[in-house]
Amino acid sequence: MAAVNLQAQVPVDLKGFDKKSGVQATVGEAMLSIEWPAGNAETAKVSIDLNKTNPLIGSLGVGTKEKQYTIARNLDPAIILTVGKRDLVSQNGWNIFFDKTAYQKYQSYAVKLEKTDVKVVSSGSRTEITVNGAKAGPFSGSIQFTLYNGSPLMNVAAVMSTNVDSLAVIYDIGLTSRDTPWEKLFWADTEDYMRNVAVAKMDTVEMMAVKYRTIIGQGKEGNLAVFPAPHQYFYPLDNCYNLEHIWYGENYRNLLPGFGIGIRHDLLGDRRWVPWFNAPPGTQQRYNFFCLLSREKDGKVLENVKAFTHSDKYEPLPGYYTMSSHFHQEHVDDVLTRKPLPDMPGFVKAFRNTGVNIVHLAEFHGPGSPRGPEAKRWPELKMMFAECARLSGGNFLLLPGEEPNNFFGGHWMNIFPKPVYWLMSREKDQPFVEDHPEYGKVYRIGSKDEMLKLLEMENGLAWTAHARTKGSTGFPDKHKDEAFFKSDRFLGAAWKAMPADLSQPKLGKRVLDLMDDMANWGYKKNVLAEADLFRIEPNYELYGHLNVNYLQLDQLPRFEDGWQPVLDAMRKGKFFVTTGEVLIPAFRVNNAVVGEMAKPDAKGNVEISLDAKWTFPLNRAEVISGDGKEVFHDMINLNDTQAFGQKSFKFTQNLKGRKWLRVELWDVAANGAFTQIIWLE
Fold first, then answer.
1. What are phi and psi of 58, to 5 degrees?
2. CB 3.0–4.6 Å: which of 36, 97, 150, 381 could bond 642 by disulfide?
3. pTM of the entire predicted model
């Protein structure tokens, strides 16, 4: 019997484990037990069952030195990969958005684990446990647990790769048990009310729309919250519908035997373009989720989960106001078609609930008459300006804007510092500008030169929307030598986490690369956060699909006075971009700020200083610089940070021969923030 048991037990490699890390690792009785400091004088514990036939997680617990409380026993990580085909031919390779993977052939696989060996590695303030032997269809790899000192937080990931080309993947996650380890389940509904259900024997699976993307299992001695990375989990969609992101019950999708709780995707997304996640061959994709352990009951652990996203709100920061751009709400069409509307429309409530101070619209993207006739266009603009004025007030400013997609090539956004009447067409016998008896000065635009002239005369700004993908495939590269692009009226480009690739420790690499290319072209351009979303209501999953700009402003302009200070901050780069969890309130290079030139010393050294705040533990800082030809990435490992920190960082870098630099900060959930560029003498 003993000999059989030894054969069934997988080996454990502790050579990379640091005994001085504050974490305890013990192996005994076919169990690897890891106990880590969880903050507030508590310790958390995970036991990995080394018997090949038993559930992977022997137990999860949290407690004190005096007493350990067991939250659950005999759990298995539950990951389903649904694997489809990526179209790499018709458009722009892995940067494609207009793909319909869900409507092509696909197959779903539960990740199966044949435990072969276990490895424990210390990495700064975290501990990584890797269990090899995971497989799912064309993918293979491991199950990995990451434990974070200072918090009862644990990341669970299927780290998988494939050799098959052009695959797109969507994934569901959670924890299952052959028994029923929970007495009750808790979640917050879309109106932010806590709900619960007693766990009973059931033959079905329930799926629900919730707030905060979290489901909580309550055992006899504590709670376990299961939730995804708040932004990375969502591949880009046109609509941020709340697609019932939690599940619980028996035999989920007929692929996960036993009772489970978890997070899910809807395979058809918003029923429009459904690109899923990229999975290039040879990349290490992390199909992951987080767990938070707590001794508290009745769902109170949700408050601790909410802290990681400031309760899905953008935290106020002295000297800054939050701005988000590119929303095809089509509110004007709703008003003009006489739909019954409340005094405060749902989309305004949603933004105000999320802590967004300034919202820049992209109206008339489908409905409306941007190219005429004038009998429709001028009243539509008048209604947009009136509604933006009506809905602005307090700490909220609603700004008119459009995505004209005319004259310049590709798709682009615009903004003026006040209401401007203009038409995207002009007949030969019509003037470029004239005074209208009802609307005042009106412009008719017939060419890219006239469009630039309008931007100059009215002090407006334009920039490339969703650069290098969607309708901007090939742009702004194709017009980088044009006069309008070189103008200071053309701001640069906008950033969104699109496409989605779970092998990357950051979001939105596509536009970050463009940001560096534009700087190496010699242009002083900026990159603005954009959401590029359609309809929005308070019960939608807005936060997961959103990002913002923190603009440096002394005060929020009143709509009636115009909003030139907003455009000034945008044009001068007086802002940073963030998903919300990482903030960079201050950034200097040799005491120079964005908009000023920094001078390296005689050897080419500069001192980079930045103030940072974060919720999830940080992963790394990245100093990106260029010399006009090449781009250089200097990584600074921040794996010694813990959750909920604030620090002033200083890095000395040798940038001899470089012309510019910027900084990015990313956390362990791929949330991040980045600065605008500082130029070097």
1. -65, -40
2. 150
3. 0.97
Category of 55 on φ-ψ map: left (φ > 0), alpha (ψ -120 to 50) or beta: beta
> What is the maximum alpha-carbon separation in the chain?
97
b/e per residue 184-218 (b: at least 16 CB within 10 A)? bbbbbeeeeeeeeeebeeeeebeebbbbbbbbbbb
**C-alpha span between 559 and 392 (Å, rounded):** 7
| Torsion sign over Cα 514, 519, 522, 526 | positive
User: What's at 358, amino acid-wise?
Assistant: I
Q: Which helix (H) or strand (E) holds 303?
A: helix 301-307
| pLDDT averaged per 10 residues in sequence order, the chain, 681 residues | 56 97 96 97 97 97 92 97 96 95 96 98 98 98 98 98 98 95 96 96 92 97 97 97 97 96 97 96 98 96 98 98 98 91 95 98 96 97 98 98 96 98 96 97 98 98 98 97 98 97 98 98 98 97 98 98 98 98 98 96 96 98 98 97 98 96 98 98 95
Q: Which amino acid is at 311?
A: S
What is the C-alpha end-to-end distance of the chain, expressed in Å? Answer: 74
Reported in sequence order, the residue ranges of 137-230 that DSSP labels E, i.e. its strands, are 139-148, 153-161, 167-177, 184-188, 194-198, 205-208, 211-218, 223-227
At position 280, the amino acid (one-letter code) is: P
**SS3 track for 248-280:** EEEEECCCEEEEEEEECCCCCCCCCCECCEECC
- To which residue do tokens 């008119």 refer? 400
Taking Cα atoms as reference points, which of 678, 659, 635, 459 lies closest to residue 562? 459
- In 3D, which of 667, 642, 637 has the Cα closest to residue 505? 667
